[in-house]
Specification:
By secondary structure, the chain is mainly α. It has 11 helices and 2 strands, in the order H-H-H-H-E-E-H-H-H-H-H-H-H. It has one domain. It comes from Deinococcus aquiradiocola.
């Protein structure tokens, strides 16, 4: 493989890594505070893409408004799900959360499939990026689609802002305090329940944002999140459950490694991330950026 093809694969990997980073970031935010694994995250990612498509088809809403509105709608749906369903399971075994969110995944996928068939007469549909992001950019060392560069840049910016808010602001301090010791946090007059709901809403809104960004690249399909979410869970485990920085760094790194690995040796493309996960679990069970259980 020559240098230019390798660079193209690296940039393609960064695009995939952008989606892994946003999705795993949402999962990490949710797990960090609620200690639940949201198996419906992939379906909510798909819902973000479908929301942008539906807003375009029914209201004529363009890409830029949809990039804001669709994630907000997905976040609101997440708030409702947390208030109505997930909250009832916090005191129970984690398997109940897994079963509920897995059931929600199947329900959301089938509902979107039925709506797409009945209202739009399609089982999957393309979604056009804005005209200003069409075409390619010559970076000097490689020519790459403008929209994909935008996806990389925006995803990185959102990930860095989220990390900064969680780690460096008073809002993040409240979230961390509510995570580590909710009883003491309540004694300071902080409504931990409201913060839990808000954090879940933000986490799934990040998934919705990733879905809107992915729609012009992968098209809108009811099952577009089913395969991606498995890799995303592997990314979260490699980075460390609940680690914001780990989710971002490992998300982009896994995207690049799998893309380059697929180019060098295609048969390994679908298994490389799971090989990495197995090695990390073998030598550092808490993840690359996670704290050992006794240090939490």
């Amino acid at each position: 493989m020559n240098a230019q093809l390798l660079l193209i694969q690296v940039f393609n990997g960064l695009v995939n890594g952008a989606f892994y980073a946003l999705l795993s970031l949402g999962l990490a935010v949710i797990f960090g505070m609620l200690r639940i694994v949201n198996f419906a995250h992939g379906a909510l990612y798909m819902l973000g893409a479908f929301g942008a498509f539906a807003l375009s088809e029914t209201l004529g809403l363009g890409f830029w408004p949809s990039l804001i509105v669709s994630p907000l709608i997905v976040g609101l749906i997440g708030v409702i799900l947390e208030r109505v369903l997930l909250r009832r399971l916090y005191g129970l075994d984690h398997s109940y959360n897994l079963l509920l969110t897995f059931g929600l995944t199947l329900l959301i996928q089938d509902l979107v499939k039925q709506v797409m068939l009945s209202q739009f007469a399609v089982s999957s549909a393309p979604y056009t990026p804005p005209e200003m992001l069409t075409g390619v950019v010559n970076l000097g060392f490689v020519v790459f689609p403008k929209y994909r560069l935008f996806v990389i840049a925006l995803s990185l910016a959102v990930c860095l802002v989220t990390w900064y808010v969680i780690e460096r602001t008073r809002v993040g301090a409240v979230v961390r305090a509510a995570t580590e010791n909710p009883t003491v946090t309540r004694s300071f007059g902080i409504n931990v329940s409201a913060w839990v709901t808000a954090v879940f809403g933000v986490g799934v809104a990040l998934a919705g944002l990733a879905g809107v960004l992915a729609a012009p690249i992968y098209s809108v399909d009811p099952y577009m999140g089913a395969e991606l979410i498995i890799t995303t869970f592997a990314v979260v485990v490699i980075g460390g459950m609940g680690s914001i920085l780990g989710s971002v760094v490992v998300g982009f790194a896994v995207g690049v490694l799998t893309a380059v690995g697929a180019a060098l040796y295609p048969p390994i493309s679908n298994t490389l991330v799971f090989i990495l996960m197995a090695l990390v679990l073998l030598f550092r069970p808490s993840g690359l950026f996670g704290l050992p259980e006794g240090a939490r």
